[in-house]
Amino acid sequence: MSEPRLQPATRLDQVRYDIRGPLSQRARELELAGVELLRLNIGNPARFGLHAPAALREAIAANLPKADPYGHELGLESAREALLLDAAARGIAVADAEHVFIGNGVSELIDMALRALLEPGDEVLLPRPDYPLWSAATRLNGGVPRYYDCPAARDHLPDAAEIEALITPRTRALVLINPNNPTGAVYPRALLLQLVEVARRHGLLLLSDEIYEGIVYDGAGSVPLASLSGTVPCLSFGGLSKLWRACGYRVGWLLLSGDAQVLRPLRDALQLLAALRLCANQMGQWAIAAALGLRADIEALTMRGGRLHATRAALIEGVAQSAFLQMVAPQGAIYGFPAVRSDVLPAFDDQAFAMDLLEQEHVLLTPGRGFNVPDSRHLRLTLLPPPETMREVLRRIESALARRAETAIPRYAHG
After folding, report:
1. pLDDT (tens digit, 9 = 90+) per residue, 49-74?
2. Distance between CA atoms of residues 176 and 174, nearest Å
3. pLDDT for the residue 411
4. In this structure, what are the phi and psi dihedrals at residue 57, rounded to the nearest 5 degrees?
5. Are residues 251 and 310 in the same domain?
6. What is the C-alpha separation between 43 and 283, in angstroms, rounded?
């Protein structure tokens, strides 16, 4: 009897998810060996003591007996109606609850949306750096990522003209991540309007990842793209994971806005895909209505004196004092994206450094290359730990960089 062929599909060769990749695997080995690590690699609020509001758990508990059967493939009707009202309050015109989809986290809905949209070889415009799920889902669904740059020199913001220059006859969609993961950039209204106009001129679908909407600092304004896009078809992604610190509930939603007639074939395709997975997690959906009434709850963490604001301040201060690091201060989301200065340490491999930092300093973070940035000098750190932890992490990073500098330039310490 011949042995079965169990080689993985070749389409996985170009898929990476370094946030939970080799560094994370090595971290688990070290912890099993008794090493205590400082983990700043994942935006997982509850792991840092930041839990979902009690009202969400109470809503689930009160409705738990109703969660036993399969539900509607689009999601719990009362939850979709609540999302419809919430969208209207934020200036987003969604035709009806049939244009609201609930999924097992935003990740599932991103995959479904690209599966419904793409033919083999179709192109998707993605930011660089991007959240790597977008690149992975594009490739796994037969698409081709085309990256537009969001460099630190431009405060990690895209340029509409550069994006437009990348468009070809195969381009189907333009993806925005706002507020941005990993950079913390928040896109201003004027820029969003420019990007809507690019999509309008070229008949592109807008895909707006807004899982961090509302997590902003020092007066930065987070504007939902669909509140500006009018009749241009726009898919807006949100969920409970970040704003409401309920990652493990695995509850995300997708709002379809724009010309309903133009959207109809895609909406119907999404419903077919939703039906094939039967339904989303029923328990978590009961928390949606309760969560939407608590949008302002996050301000206790993001305003001056709040935990996220304080840790962000510690990061900004630490980078300013560093001999090696520079950074565009994050305006939103829960990450900082500092870079190692090329004038101080010309030769630098962010992945090798991240592994050295883990092995020698017992700090786990994600190198910028994990966000599809070639030759990256960046490191992504989450803002979730207390400020004193951030200060200690920066001290260890500085120590590791100093060792590298001494190796590269023996007389570094003597000028």
Report:
1. 999 999 999 999 999 999 889 999 99
2. 7
3. 42
4. -65, -40
5. no
6. 23
